[in-house]
Amino acid sequence: MTHPRRLWRVLSALLLCLAWLSAAGAEGPSCAAPLRVGMSLLGVAYFKQDGQARGYDVDLMQELGRRLNCTFEIIEMNRPRIFQSLERGEIIDLATSTSRTPERDAYAMFVPMAQTRDYLLVPDRLAKPGFDLNQFVATPALRIGVLIGSNYSSFINARLSVLARQGRVDATVNAESLIPRLIAGRYDGLIVTPAYFVAALRDLPEARELRALPVLEGETYLSGIYLSRKALDEGRRQQIRDALQAIHQGGTLLRILRNYFPEAMARERAGFKP
């Protein structure tokens, strides 16, 4: 007959083994394969440093991967191609600067991850007291630069429509070229969010003559990420959404943003309500 103490020791050992195996299983990959993420070079959101991917969207992706025990593969492409690939289910979009549209909602789940506003970026010679987007539009010689695939408020869209009818819009799919083209005089202003310009105004000597004027007539708006309905089943989409909401509500998102934005901008960006 087995002694009760010996039996207890055997049972305890078995329970410890089961606990260890359970923990080991939990630490294993929870994604069968790396999730493909479409990203385009965009200011402090996504850039390359010594050949390595950097930026607050990259930091967010890595934090998400840590929480879900998943790995990600970055596929670099321009914004129009990202939306085409997202619709086909080839990628997910973790660029938190993506605006929400009914067209994108039809094929992907939107998760808000930022509150932002648009700025008019102009040379110092134009940034006189009281100068704003309306005055820009009212000055026939001035041209504006925009990024194809961007979405704006109704206030800004109305002004861009006027400029477009007058042939005063210079559009590109290359976000990296926006500020260099402004510096080179290809156009006289840009409508962009802080993600595009904070690093350039801080680090580029040739950008020190640029001024960022908030478009106060335009409201702040939510931007975020899109999870493809074709690439991810409903359970996986909900799991990623819940993890992203926890990153925001727990303060991790704000800590990430503080590494790239001035404090006031970081707080505004993370200050949205789910």
Query: What is the third-level CATH name, the topology of the largest domain?
Result: D-Maltodextrin-Binding Protein, domain 2
What is the spatial order of strands in the main beta sheet? Answer: 4-1-5-12-6
**For the CA atoms, what is the radius of gyration?**
24 Å
Sketch the major β-sheet.
Answer: 5 strands, mixed
- State the domain count: 2
Structural class, please?
A: alpha/beta
Task: Determine the fraction of residues in helical runs and give it as a percent range.
Answer: 40-55%
**Cα end-to-end separation:** 62 Å
Characterise the protein shown here.
By secondary structure, the protein is an alpha/beta fold. It folds into two domains: 35-116 and 220-270, Periplasmic binding protein-like II (D-Maltodextrin-Binding Protein, domain 2); 119-214, Periplasmic binding protein-like II (D-Maltodextrin-Binding Protein, domain 2, 3-Layer(aba) Sandwich), CATH 3.40.190. It is built from eleven helices and twelve strands. The strands form three sheets. It has a five-stranded mixed beta sheet, with helices on both faces. A five-stranded mixed beta sheet has the order 9-8-10-7-11. A two-stranded antiparallel ribbon has the order 2-3. Helix 2 packs across helix 9. The longest helix has 24 residues, at 4-27. Residues 7-29 have low confidence and may be disordered.
